[in-house]
Design goal:
Layout (H helix, E strand, L loop, with lengths): L13 H8 L5 H5 L5 E3 L15 E14 L5 E7 L4 E6 L4 H6 L5 E9 L5 E4 L2 E4 L9 E3 L8 H14 L8 H4 L1 E2 L2 E2 L3 H9 L7 H5 L4 H27 L12 H8 L6 H14 L6 E6 L5 H14 L3 E5 L3 H20 L4 E5 L5 H13 L2 E6 L13 E6 L7 H17 L10 E6 L5 H6 L5 E5 L10 E6 L3 H13 L3 E5 L7 H18 L5 E4 L5 H12 L5 E4 L12 E6 L7 H8 L10 E6 L9 H12 L3 H12 L1 H5 L18 H17 L1 H12 L9
Parallel strand pairs: 4-6, 11-16, 11-17, 12-14, 12-15, 13-14, 15-16, 18-23, 19-21, 19-22, 20-21, 22-23
Antiparallel strand pairs: 1-8, 2-3, 2-5, 3-4, 5-6, 5-7, 9-10
Helix pairs in contact: 6-8, 8-23, 8-24, 9-11, 9-12, 10-11, 20-21, 23-24
This protein binds adenosine-5'-diphosphate and magnesium ion.
Adenosine-5'-diphosphate (ADP) binds next to helix 11.
EC number: 5.6.2.4
GO molecular function: DNA helicase activity; hydrolase activity
Protein name: ATP-dependent DNA helicase RecG
Length: about 700
């Protein structure tokens, strides 16, 4: 086979496949695969000078070898280096090793030294023949996966480093200085990080503060900023329908029909959105606001602007319950106004009957449905909009990149079928989230997004008091429920996901439901879980919404959107198993009315033990603050951006080296550098993005 021919995927060896799995395909990918840590094999020490717990390399003569059977079969080899002796202990061993360590042989041994009554020992050390040159640099240890031995990976990385084009992509005038010092060259930084000199301060390498690391992190952040900026500029070249606000239209009618006046924040954000809608470029805006801050009304008002301008609006929510809630509320508000104009609201969900769905599709296709509300069903291929002008996504973080892209494409689909437009058109996009994004995340992952924030709650809310209660006080918690119910209040009881098993999850919720039904014979206790048929869920929800059902036991299906102002107590079982943002969302279901409300976080320590430090920090944070921004910030601290971003990043490139908190100065630099790079050095910018992101660049754009 000629050297240039690529082997077919099924011909790849196990380590080759593992390299692919790690995304190490091009020489540059290998060159940028950096060590996790290092081993110092550059020196041989005397046993007499080494300390208990040190990882050391020694050289000496084998003085004794035996296979012992107590407490279990093991090979014991004694080595003397002239200063002291040490016993090597192997529980798995081969005849070849016994031969390698025959009595009288000189060997070089590397491992962790343990002192004790029986003298010095090493467990499963690395052994080779003594003598031979010592390496001059530290030995890198790379992140790897099963089937990819370090030795193989080291060779591959070495080859990648030799072959990769490492010429500079960041010109000196952009690079400048960071923290008052010029940055290292990329080539020098990489050579150093793969094979550092033994006298380097290992701490600096391990905590990534070394100048070589600074260079790599700066490069990585720049690549991320460049790709986001490219996406933003590409979007600005697109066209969207111009949706000007009109006096005397639906917008004003809705304002007049609402039972309350808007908060200052709602007015300001509504204005920001209206300005975007009146432009020829598609809006790409995130509306963030704490649970209960009133995002739905803002969305409804934006929908009015689009409808007034003669276009359709789609509203997509991640669950049927949430979609249903929007539907109920928007229908209350909008349907009478729309009907007076001969227009309709259409409804699309996965569980819909074929006939009903057909009718809805026809309404959407004809353009009679001015407003379309639903779940993922909205983006299915059969759904053809007549004139989609505005797409709104609630709880946007629960949707994946592909789903958002599909919604964006819904307009060009229809326009292609109709008149032949020259420039591709996209609908305006409004994304909503109750999980505020911390500033550093917004600056990096969401750089292609304009952000509006509802930072004010509607008046008349009472803050929710949060209590941490041990599972052992379950009976007291049930008494508290009884007291609330006696006052005509309603209660949520949330059961967690157990070990990711839906079946167990369900049986647990069912048991709790039985327990509470028995303990509270005076109250109607309902059960809601994700496996229930939608019609049943709907029936349970409407009993609870109407106030007939006093207690609702549920799995986390109620997480988003449920709005029952009379609910004043929420009990969350195994609070320690939830993420902070999730707890915050759940807690937001109470405190929606004027009554004093409480959230009880029940926790149980693992059998016989104490609750872990992380779990405790999480629960404490919940009790200490009700500010969604503060909670999001702590959540990011505790969990890191990977989990925080959730579906958005499915399979996508997260930052590998840079840390958004520690490297804020580098992030600021990259943000300023990116537009200059694109304007003044577009070719270098393209090479830089390709070098760092390769095929992953697309993921960061949606
Ligand atoms: P979220 O931001 O969590 O989606 P909602 O839009 O569901 O919040 O609003 C929460 C509740 O507050 C709803 O019952 C809504 O009708 C009500 N609401 C919204 N805006 C106001 C306001 N300006 N004054 C009073 N109540 C409001
Ligand atoms: Mg909402």
């Amino acid at each position: 086979m000629p050297a240039s021919a690529k082997p077919a995927p099924d011909k790849l060896s196990v380590p080759q496949k593992a390299l692919r799995k790690l995304g190490l395909v091009r020489p540059i990918d290998l060159a940028l695969h950096l060590p996790l840590r290092y081993e110092d094999e550059t020196r041989v020490v005397r046993l007499a000078d080494a300390l208990d717990g040190d990882t050391v390399q020694i050289e000496g003569e084998v003085t004794q070898q035996e296979v012992s059977f107590r407490p279990r079969r093991q090979l014991l080899v004694s080595v003397n280096d002239g200063s002291d002796s040490c016993v090597l202990r192997f529980f798995n061993f081969y005849p070849s090793q016994q031969k390698q360590m025959a009595v009288g042989t000189r060997i070089r041994v590397r491992g962790e030294l343990r002192g004790g009554f029986g003298g010095l020992t090493m467990m499963h050390p690395t052994v080779r023949a003594a003598g031979g040159a010592l390496p001059e640099a530290l030995t890198p240890v790379y992140p790897t996966v099963a089937g990819l031995p370090q030795a193989y990976l080291r060779k591959a990385v070495g080859a990648g480093l030799a072959q990769a084009d490492l010429s500079a992509t960041v010109p000196p005038e952009i690079l400048g200085e960071i923290r008052g010092k010029p940055l290292w060259e990329l080539r020098k930084a990489l050579a150093f990080l793969h094979h550092p000199a033994p006298d380097v301060a290992l701490v600096q390498l391990e905590d990534h503060t070394h100048p070589a690391w600074q260079r790599l992190k700066a490069e990585e952040l720049l690549a991320q900023q460049l790709s986001q900026l490219q996406a933003r500029r590409a979007r600005h070249r697109l066209r969207a329908p111009v949706l000007p606000s009109q006096a005397g239209g639906l917008h004003e009618q809705l304002l007049a029909a609402l039972p309350f006046g808007l908060t200052g924040a709602q007015r300001r954000v509504g204005e920001e959105i209206a300005q975007d809608l009146a432009r020829t470029q598609p809006m790409h805006r995130l509306l963030q606001g704490d649970v209960g801050s009133g995002k739905t009304v803002v969305a409804a008002l934006a929908a009015c602007v689009a409808i007034d301008a003669g276009w359709q609006c789609a509203l997509m929510a991640p669950t049927e319950i949430l979609a249903e809630q929007h539907f109920a509320k928007l229908v209350d508000w909008l349907a009478p106004l729309l009907e007076a104009r001969g227009q309709r609201v259409a409804w699309l969900t996965g569980s819909q009957k074929k006939k009903a769905r057909g009718e809805m599709l026809a309404l959407i296709d004809s353009g009679e449905a001015a407003l379309v509300i639903g779940t993922h069903a909205v983006i299915q291929a059969q759904v053809k909009f007549r004139r989609l002008g505005l797409a709104i996504i609630d709880e946007q973080h629960r949707f994946g990149v592909e789903q958002r892209l599909a919604l964006r494409n819904k307009l060009s689909e229809t326009e292609r079928a109709g008149d032949d437009k020259q420039v591709a058109q996209e609908p305006h996009m409004l994304m909503m989230s109750a999980t505020p994004i911390p500033r550093t995340l917004a600056m990096s992952y969401y750089a292609d997004l304009d952000v509006s924030t509802l930072d004010e709650l509607p008046p008349g809310r009472t803050p929710v008091v949060t209590k941490l209660v041990s599972e052992q006080r379950r009976a007291e918690v049930i008494e508290r429920i009884r007291a609330q119910v006696a006052q005509g209040r309603q209660v949520y009881w949330v059961c967690p996901l157990i070990e990711e098993s839906e079946a167990l999850d369900l049986s647990n919720a069912t048991e709790t439901h039985a327990e509470l039904s028995a303990a509270l014979p005076e109250a109607m206790v309902g059960l809601l879980h994700s496996r229930m048929p939608p019609a049943e869920k709907k029936a349970v929800m409407s009993l609870f919404s109407a106030g007939q059902m006093a207690v609702l036991v549920s799995t986390t299906v109620i997480e988003v959107g449920v709005d029952v102002p009379n609910a004043s107590l929420m009990v969350i079982e195994h609070g320690e198993r939830f993420g902070l943002s999730q707890l915050h969302q759940l807690r937001g279901r109470v405190g929606r009315g004027a009554a004093a409300s409480a959230c009880v976080l029940m926790y149980s320590a693992p059998e016989g033990g104490r609750l872990g430090e992380t779990a405790r920090a999480r629960l404490r944070a919940m009790a200490e603050t009700t500010d969604g921004f503060e909670i999001a910030r702590r959540d990011l601290d505790i969990r890191g951006p990977g989990e925080f971003l959730g579906a958005r990043q499915s399979g996508a490139a997260l930052l590998r080296f840079a840390d958004l908190q520690d490297d804020a100065p580098l992030l600021e630099w990259a943000r300023e550098a990116a537009p200059r790079m694109l304007d003044e050095f577009p070719d270098l910018a393209a090479r830089h993005v390709d070098r760092w992101l390769g095929e992953r660049a697309d993921y960061l754009k949606a």
